[in-house]
Amino acid sequence: MNVSPRFRNQTREDAEDIYYGQVVTSWARWFNAAAAVILVLWSATTSNELARNILPVIGLVAINFFMHGRTLMERPANQALVLAASLIDVIVITAVVAFWHDDGLVSPFYVLYYPAVFAFALVMAPRLTAIYAGLAMVAYVAACAVADVRFLDSTADAKLLVMRLITLAATATLGAYYYRVQRQRRRSGPAFGPREETRVAPRPIPLDDARLA
Amino acid sequence: MLNKAFSDLEEDLAYGLDVIVKAKWALVVAVLVLMLWAPGPIGQLRVQILAWLLVAVQTFYLHAQLLKRRRVPEALVYAASAVDLIVVTALIMFQGGFDSNLYIFYFPAIVAYSVAFRPETTLVFTGATLLTYATVCLGDFGSEGVTDADLQSLLTRLIALAAVSFCGAFYWHLEQERRVASGELAGPTAVQDNEPVMPHGEGM
After folding, report:
1. B203: chain A residues, CB-CB within 8 Å
2. Nearest-CA distance from A174 to chain B in Å?
3. What does DSSP assign to residue B198?
4. Residue B146 belongs to some domain of the structure
5. Residue B46: left (phi > 0), alpha (psi -120 to 50), or beta?
6. Angle of helix A5-43 relative to helix A47-72, nearest 10 degrees?
7. Is B16 a domain residue?
């Protein structure tokens, strides 16, 4: 199959962005894991409850050790693995919102979606960010519905939900927009640099295709 | 004719201002929805309308500068972000402090400046925001009493806000490294006879 050079370049750029940027998603996950550890330790009243609740947190931490460890060893994960880890983030946050103590719309833990979605938007291509943010928003609405089917009966609740979805969408959009701005910046060189003939042309980043695969 | 050495900082701010303006428009839309859909008491609504007007006019001005490809003073870019944070904090204070759900408006504002400003500046802005918000909430707790669940909720909000800020600042740092690695950034360069235009203006 013939692949156009433009498509090949774009694919390579996508891979480079993931290669360099994925550590941001790891950091977002560390923050979410830190919040989860503090809350689990703080809110548990019995040993059984603590042991049960800490399990998913340990899972999240283990995933992040793997992901961050690969980055530190200069063998970052490929797109599929980063996508899988990000999907797990959404699943875990949604489960916490749906089932943990004050669940559904009153759950305070929906804020954990914001770092996850923003970090994803900075690393992945905008089309993937749109899908991921949409998925997170649908998951949040579903979690609210699971906790209380009648959660949209009240206008105040509906307004609350819409405000949260707007700000989550704005966060994803801004991240994706900045991603696009940076890519165009890399393609075009410095905005306020010397004149074209004296500008030092950006060198391709020395990564072979095998490392990006 | 300008004989001016444009620093990397100015270039970053110029690119970042575009993101900040987009974030401000998002705030304008969100506050509009807040005002018009099931409006709150008249006192709150007055404050919301004033805040909306302030942010909308400022955003329009900044967007106009971008469209006209004019350089915006550095201080004005910082002030634009500070105004967002102050407006959101004022809205929260007038809507019940800790009980207000408007703290989510901090997210787009923090996202925008964290990728636009240098990490040290981001740290100052975020530190001040978190400190102010925590003080507002703790003051509210002082008058109404506090439960463990409230404190946990406050802590979660602060961690999420800090996480977004950190991710933005870290990404800014990574992008700097990438540009240095590619040879694009070799220190500040002198520019002669260049018009002080904003970069590209795409997506406007």
Report:
1. 177, 180-181
2. 7
3. P
4. yes
5. alpha
6. 150
7. yes
A7 vs A29: CA distance, rounded Å: 31
Contact B55, B105 (CB under 8 A): no
Mutate to test the interface with A, among B111, B126, B155, B185 (most CBs of A within 10 A): B111
Written as six digits, the tokens of A187 are: 């393609």
Amino acid sitting at position A67: M
The position carrying tokens 């003051």 is: B139
Condensed to tens digits (0 to 9), the pLDDT of residues A59-109 reads 888 888 888 888 888 788 888 889 999 999 999 899 888 887 777 888 888
Q: How many domains does chain B have?
A: 1
Q: Chain B, 104-123: which have a CB under 8 Å from a chain A CB?
A: 104-105, 107-108, 111-112, 115
Q: In whole angstroms, what separates CA A144 from the centre of its chain?
A: 21
Say what the pTM is: 0.81
DSSP B197: P
- Find chain A residues with C-beta within 8 A of B108's C-beta: 167, 170-171, 174
Is the residue at A107 inside a domain? Answer: yes
d(CA A94, CA A74): 31
Which candidate, B52, B132, B136, places its Cα nearest to that of B95?
B136
- How many domains does the structure of chain A reveal? 1
CB-CB contact of B25 with B80 (8 Å): no
Size of interface A-B (CB pairs under 8 A): 185
Mean pLDDT calculated for residue range A16-45: 87
In a domain, A23, yes or no: yes
